[in-house]
Design a protein that fits this description.
transmembrane
């Protein structure tokens, strides 16, 4: 039995009620962030439970590896929510175009990766499956790097910005998830 699956299952079972509480209390304002984070925790719990039962399960490994996508979308939602609070007069078109662009790119990346992985797993591999898998993985990394840059740009100090008192402890809450994403990506 692989201990990673059991550790993920235990950790995310503990974190899930906190995420659900935040999802309920933020309502529509924080829907993007907290819904994505609840999907991330759910994927980790499901993948951990399947992995505890059978550590060599392809399904458990795919669910665990795909689980980073909702985390990236969660960070995107948190940055969007923070920009909405801090810069109420900022371009809504720009904010939503980043959200939509990130979401569409992540769907394409995951679709490419899953299609290639399933073909390889089922011994129906074609000559381009490895390149599709690498392309999907590269797109995830590119979106993650873009999201880091967008976060730094969006949350830097501006005199015209409104300081959001509700976000003072947000970095401390999101740090475990960001570290887990770097473990999954790396």
């Amino acid at each position: 039995m692989n201990g990673i699956f059991a550790a993920d299952l235990a950790a995310y079972l503990i974190l899930s009620p906190i995420v659900v509480y935040n999802f309920i209390t933020h309502r529509w304002t924080g829907f993007l962030a907290w819904y994505s984070l609840s999907m991330f925790c759910s994927a980790r719990v499901i993948g951990g439970a399947l992995g505890v039962r059978d550590a060599s399960s392809m399904t458990a490994n795919i669910i665990q590896s795909v689980g980073v996508t909702p985390l990236i979308l969660c960070v995107d939602g948190l940055v969007h929510e923070a920009r909405t609070y801090r810069y109420p007069y900022a371009s809504r078109r720009l904010n939503w175009s980043v959200v939509v662009g990130t979401s569409v790119t992540m769907v394409v990346a995951i679709s490419l990766s899953i299609k290639a992985c399933l073909d390889i797993f089922e011994d129906k591999a074609q000559s381009d499956d490895h390149s599709l898998w690498k392309t999907g993985s590269a797109l995830v990394v590119v979106v993650w790097i873009f999201q880091i840059g967008w976060s730094i740009y969006s949350l830097q100090f501006h005199d015209k910005g409104i300081q959001g008192p509700g976000y003072q402890g947000g970095t401390a809450v999101s740090t475990p998830f960001l570290l887990d994403a770097s473990r999954v990506i790396g």
